[in-house]
Design a protein that fits this description.
12 strands; 8 helices; eight-stranded mixed β-sheet; binds cytidine-5'-triphosphate; Spore Coat Polysaccharide Biosynthesis Protein SpsA, Chain A; binds the ligand C[C@](O)(CO)[C@H](O)COP(=O)(O)O; transferase; 2-C-methyl-D-erythritol 4-phosphate cytidylyltransferase; Nucleotide-diphossugar_trans
């Protein structure tokens, strides 16, 4: 049996967020980047990897039919080898990822979890994550060193300046991106073990860390940034324009 068959790899794309920080409008994943919905860019980014044969899109709970219709509209722009399934999402990212995991068929053993909000991740980054998991790492995250110095503060809600309590050593810090890659059984265990209360965990790898399992880092990519605030849309469209100029993407 080939690696492809033995280590069948699927991507779960949580896309159920509202995009509050981006401002009013459609759910973030459905907003356009150079005329194409962000979610379509994200699905294509996963499908670009020959390792990924299934993509599970976790849609806004009240928008699964709309997302299905959108994906059907763009079917011609996806590789034939990739199956795309849509499931309704939850209240938090953690809950949405869990709902995506629940939809995976039995034969999937490697899972990527990729934010719809990181639509421009290059295929080399996706492949590096898959390769590290297939080589035996239970959990893999792409990450970059930080440009800013980071301060730990004592948060205040009264509008007063927040006191700084520590300055972690920057050289030891990494800004973590997606896709994050996992041995399926370990990710499922993490989602069964870590409570989904409150805002939930901000990334899946953090949940695996709480199990005491090792998580390793591979190099991330500047273009895998998260579209979070309005300025990020400007940057994303500039990246797409540069790709089009460079290689007709
Ligand atoms: N209930 C939720 C919340 C978030 N996400 C997804 O998780 C990813 C990362 O979340 P984020 O960038 O914070 O997106 P939003 O929650 O939409 O943003 P905001 O916090 O600004 O509302 C996004 O692809 C988002 O769609 C999700 O699937 N389900
Ligand atoms: C998973 C993530 O993209 C890694 O950086 C990030 O934690 C998502 O955070 P968000 O607040 O849900 O955007």
């Amino acid at each position: 049996m080939t690696d492809e068959a033995r280590l069948r790899t699927a991507a779960v794309i949580p896309a159920a967020g509202r995009g509050v920080r981006l401002g009013p409008g459609a759910p973030k994943a459905l907003r356009a980047l150079n005329g194409t919905p962000m979610l379509i860019h994200a699905v294509r980014a996963m499908a670009a990897s020959r390792a990924v044969s299934l993509v599970v899109v976790v849609a806004p709970a009240d928008g699964a039919a709309e997302v299905r219709a959108l994906l059907d509209e763009y079917e011609h722009a996806m590789p034939e080898r990739t199956e795309v399934v849509v499931v309704p999402g939850g209240e938090t990212r953690q809950q949405s990822v869990k709902l995506g995991l629940d939809a995976l068929p039995e034969d999937v053993s490697v899972v990527l979890v990729h934010d719809a909000a990181r639509p421009l991740v290059p295929v080399d980054t996706v492949d590096a994550v898959v390769e590290a998991v297939r080589d035996g790492a239970p959990a893999v995250v792409p990450a970059l060193p930080l440009a800013d110095t980071v301060k730990q503060v004592e948060p205040r809600t009264d509008g007063q300046p927040e006191p700084v309590v520590a300055t972690p050593e920057r050289a030891l810090l990494r800004a973590v991106q997606t896709p994050q890659g996992f041995d399926r059984a370990i990710l499922v265990r993490a989602h069964e073990t870590v409570p989904a209360s409150g805002e939930g965990a901000t990334d899946c790898a953090g949940m695996v860390e709480r199990l005491g399992e090792p998580v390793v880092v591979v190099p991330g990519h500047e273009e895998a940034f998260k579209v979070t605030r309005p300025l990020d849309l400007v940057l994303a469209e500039a990246v797409l324009a540069r790709r089009r100029a460079n290689d007709g993407f």
